[in-house]
Automatic annotation (TrEMBL):
InterPro entries reported in the protein's UniProt record: ACAP1/2/3-like, Ankyrin_rpt, ArfGAP_dom, BAR_dom, PH_domain
Boundaries of every PH domain copy: 274-371
UniProt feature, compositional bias: Polar residues: 387-397
Region annotation (Disordered) ranges: 378-397
Ranges occupied by ANK repeats: 688-720
Protein name per its UniProtKB record: Arf-GAP with coiled-coil, ANK repeat and PH domain-containing protein 2
Domain (Arf-GAP) ranges: 407-532
Keyword Protein transport recorded: no
One family name in Pfam for this protein: Ank
UniProt keyword terms in alphabetical order: ANK repeat, GTPase activation, Metal-binding, Zinc, Zinc-finger
GO molecular function: GTPase activator activity; zinc ion binding
Signal peptide start and end residues: none
Gene Ontology cellular-component terms listed: cytoplasm
Length: 837
């Protein structure tokens, strides 16, 4: 075989190039020992490095598994977040897709870690255990055989001559040990040669598997993102649009921040289905010793219940189970502002709102809910459609248990021209009224008026609320016919505006549009035309006529109650006679006749032969006789001879018209001026800086003052000399006006430029009643400041009593004698004797 080249066969180890020469191995030469030591060191070196590789691989895989566990926790959290958007289909769907994609990528990562674990930890670990460990074990076995061979040689060399038998045995042992050693040496050389060959591909092959695993991992990720790229682009576009929209909305909210902070009401109408109104109110406790006020969240339900609860309570407490048996009314005599009471047969609840608008909204909503509950009850709905109006009214009267006096007041209000039909839709038998407009309304239109806000319309119930004398006078001065002549002066342009007129059967949208166009936009109000009805004479000047009022018929010495709720029985017959005598001044009862008369004139006024246009000259006498004993201060104060000076037409505008009409207490012209846009707080710089309210005081009319206050006039407005309306009323001795201002919490302590307060003026003029009122107002204010949680109604009782005396005419409203006794002003009330000095 010498010189012949052998064919390479990888399965045959003899074809391998041995790392140690077998001849040297058999001879056990020093070269063999040197090569063996070198190869074993190489094996040890690789063993240490592979051990480190396995260790780091295990750490990496464990870290990867920990990472996957954290990823799964992360994905679970994402799923929980996506559940939050389950009511937002767009966001919830995109969230679910993103979560599913991340979970799929995590599966790819898990597969990568499994392949690395199999290639490194399992395959290379097996190589390390089988190949390297086998070489080390064979090396140890070779050293054992060498020790046995060396021992046999030593024993054979030590046998003396002549001992042939022992020598033969020793030689046999040497031959056996030599054969065993040579076999072990050949085996170690074979294993080392195989190991050196296998390590070249075994380790690299597994590393290649790791590379392929990473390739597969990234290839799967790439395929996934290629498939999802259109969806991801769409999602990115949607997110950009959401971000832009959110930025626009945020800027819009920021622009409206001031409006949201200062103009958002503290109540919510229709917070959720079944809820008419909800919001915070203060509720006075029922403890007798200490009546504390607690703020609670109230809800008015459409099933006729009123509930409340604390801010952090889930279940509400029912305050009133059935509102049909309740009555709600403002508390003018309470020491705290914006208070009203809800009266049931068993208990009276006292509630307080945070402001005037919230107060009016809650009172109106409760009144409407009570009325709706009554009319929707079985007692009132039985044969409702087939019953005549009189039957329905009697049923409502029975349910509400109205007193005969209040029923007559309601009847008298409805007898004012046009008041027997709703001012806006013409529905018969209205049961509500807008006190600042002086009109009557049906329940549907009253709801629309409440939604306009109290700066446009203040709604009261004719049957459920208590009506003070001043409000009754305002209602008698105005009326539906008069107001509609103002607000429907251009009724012929209704069709051109495309606005549908409200009717009793119209929808809420039509009704709401009609009322807003009529009272808010004032689209049908016509400026006064200073024409002369075709006459050639030019109008150069104008004035306001003092209104004609039906004179009251004295009712004898009998005195009605403090708060007027009807007509005294003793004067009812005289009232009927007077009503019949004045029937020629009233318009027809049919709605069609009313509408014809309302549209007959474009403005209130007419020109006389001297070329002076007189506002209010064509007004019918105001029907102030609905309270037969009521009389204005002006009728007894000696100022009835005041004459208005004609003004130039160049000075005519809505503000000066309101200013002049307030002086003569012509509420019809005042209403027209406000409809034309007059400012209730306009300051006349040409007349000592007075406002219309100052002029109403100087004119002596309580009704004109009441009308201006109802429409938002500032009660503490000052003129050029810092005189407030209550200051002027005190100076003129108008007791009724002083009572009105004190009931509305006027600033009685405000001084003029000379430092004089209304009390100083009253003492100087010796107005005994006014001195008493102002001193009691001062005492009441001190009590309210000192005991904020307590209520003392004495002051309001006395104010009502003195005001009633002024209205009744039992004595002059402008008492000037210091001899008038001030003790026992009202029945059952003891007042300290206050001497005027």
């Amino acid at each position: 075989m010498k010189g012949k080249k052998l064919i390479s066969n990888p399965d045959n180890p003899l074809n391998m190039k041995p790392v140690i020469d077998f001849g040297e191995c058999v001879r056990d030469s020093p070269k063999f020992r040197s090569n063996l030591e070198e190869q074993m060191n190489n094996v040890d070196n690789l063993d240490g490095k592979l051990e480190k590789l396995l260790k780091t691989s295990n750490v990496m895989i464990e870290s990867g598994k920990s990472f996957l566990n954290c990823q799964h926790s992360f994905y679970n959290s994402l799923s929980e977040v996506s559940v939050h958007f389950r009511h937002d289909p767009q966001v919830y769907s995109s969230f679910s897709k993103c979560s599913s994609g991340l979970i799929e990528l995590a599966k790819f990562h898990s597969t990568l870690l499994d392949q690395i674990n199999r290639a490194i930890c399992k395959n290379i670990g097996d190589f390390l255990r089988k190949e390297l460990r086998a070489c080390k074990e064979t090396r140890s076995y070779l050293e054992k055989l060498q020790t046995e061979y060396d021992g046999a040689l030593n024993r054979n060399s030590a046998i003396p001559k002549g001992k042939n038998m022992e020598a033969d045995e020793a030689m046999n042992a040497v031959n056996t040990a030599r054969a065993n050693f040579r076999s072990g040496a050949v085996d170690i050389c074979y294993q080392l040669t195989c190991f050196q060959q296998k390590k070249r591909f075994e380790i690299l092959d597994n590393i290649l598997s790791v590379i392929n695993a990473h390739k597969t991992f990234f290839h799967q990720g790439s395929d996934y993102f290629k498939d999802t790229e259109p969806a991801l682009k769409n999602l990115s576009s949607e997110l950009s649009e959401m971000r832009s929209r959110a930025a626009r909305d945020a800027n819009s909210l920021l622009d409206n921040r001031g409006v949201l902070i200062h103009q958002t009401p503290e109540y919510i109408s229709g917070g959720y289905p079944g809820c008419i109104m909800q919001g915070y109110l203060f509720r006075r406790g029922s403890a007798k010793t200490f009546k504390s006020w607690k703020r609670r969240w109230f809800e008015l339900l459409d099933k006729g219940q009123l509930t409340y609860r604390k801010r952090n309570e889930e279940h509400p407490t029912i305050m009133e189970e059935d509102l049909r048996i309740c009555l709600v009314r403002p508390m003018a005599e309470c020491d705290r502002r914006f208070c009203f009471e809800l009266i049931s047969p068993n208990k009276t609840h006292i509630l307080q709102a945070d402001g005037e608008e919230v107060f009016q909204a809650w009172v109106a909503a409760l009144q409407a809910s009570i009325s709706s509950a009554i009319h929707n009850s079985p007692a009132t709905r039985y044969h409702e459609d087939s019953s005549p109006p009189s039957t329905k009214n009697n049923s409502a009267t029975d349910l509400l248990k109205l007193s005969s006096e209040k029923a007559r007041v309601v009847e008298s209000i409805l007898k004012v021209d046009g008041n027997h039909f709703c001012c806006d839709c013409g529905a018969p038998d209205p049961e509500w009224a807008s006190v600042n407009l002086g009109i009557t309304l049906c329940i549907e239109c009253s709801g629309i008026h409440r939604s306009l806000g109290v700066h446009h319309s203040k709604v009261k119930s004719l049957k459920l609320d208590t009506w003070e004398n001043g409000l009754l006078k305002v209602m008698g001065e105005l009326g539906n016919n008069l107001v509609n002549r103002i607000y429907l002066a251009k009724a012929d342009v209704v069709n051109t505006l495309g606005v549908e007129r409200a009717t009793p059967e119209c929808s809420r949208d039509v009704r709401e549009t009609w009322i807003k166009v009529k009272y808010v936009d004032k689209a049908f109000v016509n400026p006064p035309k200073l024409s002369t009805d075709g006459k050639p004479k030019m109008i150069r000047r104008w004035s306001v006529k003092k209104p004609i009022r039906r004179r009251r018929i004295p009712s004898g010495s009998s005195s009605p109650g403090r708060v007027v709720e009807g007509i005294a029985d003793a004067s009812s017959l005289l009232m009927d006679i007077e009503t019949k005598l004045l029937e020629d001044l009233e318009l027809g009862n049919s709605e069609s006749e009313s509408n014809k008369s309302l549209q007959s004139k474009e403005t209130y006024g007419a020109s006389n032969s001297d070329g002076v246009f007189v506002f209010g000259s064509d007004l019918p006498p105001s029907q102030t006789d609905i309270v037969n004993h009521l009389v204005d201060d002006e009728e007894s104060s000696g100022e009835t001879d005041h004459k208005e000076i004609d003004e130039s037409v160049d000075t005519l505008d809505a503000n000066i018209l309101l200013y002049k009409a307030a002086r003569v207490a012509n509420l019809g012209v005042m209403c027209e001026a406000m409809a034309l846009g007059a400012d209730k707080n306009w300051i006349n710089v040409n007349d000592e800086g007075c406002t219309p309210l100052h002029q109403a005081v100087l004119g002596g009319s309580v009704t004109a003052c009441e009308f201006l206050i109802l429409n938002g006039a500032r009660i503490n407005a000052v003129d050029g000399k810092c005189r407030t309306p209550i200051y002027l009323a005190t100076q003129k001795g108008h007791t009724g006006q002083v009572c009105l201002f004190l009931r509305n919490r006027a600033g009685h302590h405000l001084a003029d430029n000379d430092g004089r307060t209304p009390l100083d003026v009253a003492i100087t003029a010796e107005h005994a009643d006014i001195v008493t009122l102002l001193r009691l107002a001062q005492m009441d204010e001190e009590m309210r400041i000192g005991e904020a949680t307590q209520s003392d109604d004495t002051f309001q009782e006395i104010v009502r009593d003195i005001a009633q005396r002024a209205y009744d005419g039992q004595e002059s409203p402008s008492t000037t004698s210091s001899d008038v006794p001030l003790q026992g002003i009202s029945s059952g009330i003891s007042v300290p004797n206050l001497h005027v000095t």
